[in-house]
Amino acid sequence: MRKLYFGTTNHKRSFFDIKGEKNLINVVLNKDQIIEVLNNIINKDITSVYILENGMTCVINNVQITLNEEFLNLSDEFDYYIDVLKTKLKKCIEKENIKKYKGQNLKVNRNNKYASKMIIAGSLVTSIMLTGLGIGLSKNIDKDISDDKDILASDTLVTDDLDEEKDIAKESELHEDKISISHGSSNKVTMVPFELDGAKDTIPSDEPTDTMPTDNATPSDEAQPTEDVAPSDEPTEEVQPSDDVMISDTIIPNLTMGNPTYNLSGSDYAFAFEFRDSTDTGKLQATKDYLGYYIEYYAKRWGLPVNLIMAQISQERGGIENGTVHNPCQLTYIYFVGQTFTAPVYDENGFTGTYDTFTVTDESINTVEGNIMAGLAFLRKVIDNNQSLLTGLFLYNQGEPNLIFACQYFGVDINDYKGDQNSMKAVELIKRYTQTVYGSYYGDQNYLTNIFQYLELDENGEATLTYYLGDQEITIKINNTLVKDDNMVRG
Amino acid sequence: MNSKIILTDVEGNKYKAEILFTHFDYFFSKNYIVYLIDDDLLASSYEKVDNKYIINNDLSSKEYDMIDKTIEERLGEAYA
Fold this sequence. Notes:
The complex is a heterodimer of chains A (about 500) and B (about 80).
Chain A: E1 2-9, E2 12-19, E3 25-28, H1 31-42, E4 46-52, E5 55-60, E6 63-68, H2 69-73, H3 79-99, E7 117-120, H4 124-139, E8 152-157, H5 162-172, H6 199-202, E9 250-251, E10 269-273, H7 283-301, H8 306-316, H9 333-336, E11 340-347, E12 350-359, H10 362-365, H11 368-386, H12 389-398, H13 402-410, H14 423-437, H15 447-452, E13 462-469, E14 472-480, H16 481-490
Helix pairs in contact in A: 3-4, 7-8, 7-11, 11-12, 12-14, 13-14
Chain B: E1 4-9, E2 14-25, E3 30-37, E4 40-49, E5 52-56, H1 61-79
Antiparallel strand pairs in B: 1-2, 2-3, 3-4, 4-5
């Protein structure tokens, strides 16, 4: 049976063909392939539906399709097909619900004892049912469902409880967490224990722990030496980070988390990660050569670490052509254009007490300087809101409000996740939230390490990030444990 | 069938509910949701506000009549 995954990439619908013995390979479909697939299924009956935690799997015309929630709620050129599919899913679910009460005389209890107004918390099925209804209203295709008796095939399989659904999802091996893109990289990564105090207590244990350590972690000395990264001449090459590279989530052992006043070798905080070194690929140097002036000017002016921003834009930007690059900060125009930013201004003595205020326009965002201004001002805003450099950096990719949403979703106090001392805990919570709600493909789950690969490290594998938070200068050390381990092996 | 949702009232109390179906009624021009809480069959209207679904339990008797009729129709459909 052909297996497809309808997911999202950067908030846009993406269609994948799932391949390989263990469904570990997915291939992005192009537009013609998508239309061919959709035409093959759109007029066919749904023969089975499985509800997953953050999506659903259905079988239509001998094609197994797994959809995530965000995919269903987005809008694009394929809306016609997806709306029909959603309507079929909705009717399939509703009919089975009603069937359970076959033979009973159902009357609504008119003495509703509950509060007059209540909020429906997040639920995939709710979303499908409610949005499906909206579709039916807008396109007048839900007017008379009795006309559509052929929609539900007699062998429709519907699960009755959550445990059973999880088992089915496991058996089908189509759970999103098991799907990963293979770039053919030979990188091996050590999954070191998650040692952040308190994090396990605050993150709900019943959620999948796909980013947590595994018992069969490979030894760190299997990591690919950084020398093996083939150097290439920038600017045209687009270095693709390995999806294997994971954040280690390990705090350097002699730090005491939760105490913001400690000090380590002149730095306020230190975090250890495992990432490959891509500083010699030419991309970082090209960023410095062609974009470095504006990056340095605005990063310094707004109290951000220049080396980190160089690395971030090296990761974000596309290729440089004719000495320039389009949208180097990879901004979403619809969000940025028209938005007014206010950023605090710093000089060599710290906070000047003044602010830069500007509004992003269609014209400015298309210039290198205007694009960098908007990107850095946004990063500055997210860092300030979360009082953390690394949390802000991660939210730049994952979406500005997602720490708030994650805390609401898991019922935890956001104040326990703000601040540099809580940044890894916050990153884990955001990952858990976005993977749960939107699926494993949401944003770049390895965004931090994909940036750090462009950080220039010292002989100990460390980079120092210095930035301002309010009027306080903060220093953070990023340690690449691969370099450290490599030195130890050689030593 | 898994159509479970959590309803939260203004005081933060949470109730597990199971959706039977949703329905848009052209006469009342409103969306309705029919659901179970502890085998208690309930109906509410709902609307989407700020990306949240807000349900309203204050229905008129005519709205309840309409819901009961819709359930009958859908039960009949399930027999088919």
